[in-house]
Write a structure and sequence with these properties.
This protein is about 45% helix and about 20% strand. The chain is α+β, with helices and mostly antiparallel strands and about 120 residues long.
């Protein structure tokens, strides 16, 4: 009898698909789902939120605000009171959120994006 038949291989593949995700995979899935919800709110104001790094074991997340957020007077509040608060409230494994603002973004393009593109004077 030949080992490794296609039926046996299919059975193994199906068992692998049914396997529980690892803790890392489960955390990443939950995190990415939440991050997309936050991003859509920020994008509605002409900005964006990109993921720089995530450490699911240490609970540290690093993100970057881009677009209109680079010229917005309340971008630090968006990071602290918005992004960090939401992530830490909904994902208890997150201990720290580090954030930055993309300073290389073209301010004239930011102003042309409309809402959320406020430039403090």
């Amino acid at each position: 009898m030949e080992s490794g038949t296609s039926a046996e291989t299919a059975m193994l593949v199906n068992q692998e698909e049914l396997a529980e995700p690892t803790e890392h995979e489960a955390r990443m899935k939950e995190f990415m789902t939440l991050l997309e919800l936050i991003r859509s709110a920020i994008q509605a104001d002409g900005g964006d939120l990109t993921l720089v790094d995530v450490d699911t074991e240490g609970g540290v997340v690093e993100v970057m605000l881009e677009g209109a957020c680079s010229s917005c007077a309340i971008s630090s509040a968006t990071l602290g009171d918005g992004v960090e608060r939401i992530l830490r409230d909904r994902l208890p494994w997150i201990k720290e959120v580090r954030g930055g603002i993309d300073e290389d973004f073209d301010l004239s393009l930011s102003q042309a994006r409309g809402r959320g593109s406020y430039v403090a004077r």
